[in-house]
Amino acid sequence: MTTIVLSRRNLLAAGGSVVATGVSGLLLPAGAQGVAPTQSMSGGANNYRKGAAIVDRIGKGGFWMSGTVRRAGDGAPLAGQRIQIWAHTTEGQEHEPQSHGATLTDKNGAFRLEMPQIIPVFGQPHGHLAYDSGEFKTVFLRPVMRSAKDTSLEGHFVLQPA
Amino acid sequence: MRSARVALIWAALAAAICVPIAAAAASPLLAWRGPVYILAGFAGIIALGLVLVQPLLIGGYLPGLPAYRGRRVHHWIGGALVVAVVVHVAGLWFTSPPDMIDALLFTSPTPFSPFGVVAMWAIFAVALLAALRRRLGLRPRTWRIAHMSLAVIIVVGSVVHAMLVEGAMETVSKAALCALVLAAAIKVMADLRVWRRQATSRGESIAQR
Fold it and tell me: Which of A152, B149, B162, B203 is deepest in the core (most CB within 10 A)?
């Protein structure tokens, strides 16, 4: 089941990016082409709590959420960007404060935060990530795990100026 | 021999519904869910079980419940189905309001949500139509076509919804229950030739068989 869902998601994502690239290629003059900004995913902002604290680890850990943050257009890595992460885990439901935490990107624009194991909720094993610091446009992601047994998940951001 | 057959049919029906419930009750996921979320999930499984019972009653396939008596039970089970769906949706709303609102507005990222929501509205519609059937003065043929169309939506919607959800239900027992739901609906529609042209009075289709 999950593979069907994922392949459709991937297909949509791939199709969407092809369309986006094609459209921007047509609209923008040559040379201004580049990395398209990430759009918020539907349901991405669900159970978001603004201002989660920057932590070394959410709860007892055991699961890794990682990703990258880049700038739209030239794709340059963005250092020191605050990414908030939350999910339904073995240690709490999605809306509960202890399920939320934030981390900063390193000089390569990468981030990585340990958190408790994500548990399927509302029919899909998924996590939530947010960039919501104001300098760039807010983006909410809701990646889905290939398998509920996975012990890691990724979310990648390409941000555009607010 | 006959009593053995009777016992076998009822035991098979009980197993088809109770095994998936028992398997879900053993799911490790329940350890990380609140009581309301658990209740909502089981209300959904029970609703799926009731969707299996409905065509069996109308077809008169259950020993001791010929179609004319099964029809009365069918009405009560229909009411119970509405209650189960309301508990399912209300419990999920309580557990995570934004996710439930997304589902009801057809903006949810989960592919199974619209199937469940459409089946829910079809269940409500058929219950309302059944309650108002006399008052509306629906002709038997109109009623039959309306009910059967909604029944197809309910069965297909429920089965797709259940199969795509990754939750507390165990995969094999869930697939078996879904297969039985489909088979029962197809059989009763074929046996009663529900799509035939002429209108017939109640029970006549059973008498013909």
Answer: B162
